[in-house]
């Protein structure tokens, strides 16, 4: 078992996003920005020069830069290269040994991609399960900083990103899934994650809207690819 090969697909545009049930909006005084599993191993199945990943990396880089300027905490997740069976648990039954074999040949395979290298002051959490909250200090980190919103970017949208969103919701943390700053196995999987999140646990929004909400005084310096 391994990751599937992933064909390029166009990211959903702002006018294609599902309507979210709540009217929440990201607040720089309440939000934390999550960069979920943007490791070389998980990005390997994508073309780095085509959508979705080419645009997703650009959008996440814009969001992280703006967040740091505004004092919004930036948190990364990353799976370790070595995962003993007791730690990996049932993931083996779905995904095999994960990055272990690739890590044995090249330890850098679990590094965050160069374009999104964590900056001084960012947090990098070890990722053990689909949700970024499981077996991590993320919930306590939010509480310690008086934050109750989580802006979610990264991969894969219908697995870890969506599950983190619903886990946040169940902890009374408002989740925001940034539709053009996440990528997935296919456009269908991507849309599945957006629709379910919008209907059941959070707000789905575009990068431009997330930037505008976090910093209303500044123009959203991000390019949306042509429709």
UniProtKB/TrEMBL annotation:
Keyword annotations for this protein, in alphabetical order, are: Hydrolase
Enumerate the InterPro entries for this protein: Isochorismatase, Isochorismatase-like_dom, Isochorismatase-like_hydrls, Isochorismatase-like_sf
The transmembrane residues are none
Sections of the chain in a coiled coil? none
Isochorismatase-like domain residues are: 32-208
Q: Does the keyword Hydrolase apply?
A: yes
The protein, known as? Isochorismatase-like domain-containing protein
- Specify the species: Actinomycetospora straminea
């Amino acid at each position: 078992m391994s990751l599937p090969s992933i064909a390029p697909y166009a990211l959903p545009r702002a006018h294609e996003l599902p309507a979210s049930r709540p009217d929440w909006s990201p607040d720089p005084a309440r939000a934390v920005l999550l960069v979920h599993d943007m490791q070389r191993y998980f990005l390997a199945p994508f073309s780095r020069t085509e959508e979705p990943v080419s645009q997703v990396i650009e959008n996440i880089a814009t969001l992280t830069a703006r967040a740091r300027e505004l004092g919004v905490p930036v948190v990364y997740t990353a799976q370790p290269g070595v995962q003993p069976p007791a730690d990996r648990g049932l993931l083996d039954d779905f995904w095999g040994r994960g990055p272990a074999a690739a890590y044995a040949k090249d330890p850098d395979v679990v590094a965050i991609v160069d374009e999104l290298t964590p900056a001084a002051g960012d947090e990098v959490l070890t990722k053990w399960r689909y949700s970024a909250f499981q077996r991590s200090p993320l919930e306590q980190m939010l509480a310690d900083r008086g934050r109750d919103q989580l802006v979610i970017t990264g991969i894969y949208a219908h697995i870890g990103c969506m599950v983190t969103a619903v886990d946040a919701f169940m902890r009374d943390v408002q989740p925001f899934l940034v539709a053009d700053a996440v990528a997935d196995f296919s456009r269908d999987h991507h849309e599945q994650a957006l629709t379910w999140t919008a209907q059941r646990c959070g707000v789905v929004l575009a990068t431009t809207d997330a930037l505008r909400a976090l910093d209303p005084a500044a123009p959203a310096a991000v390019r949306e690819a042509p429709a």
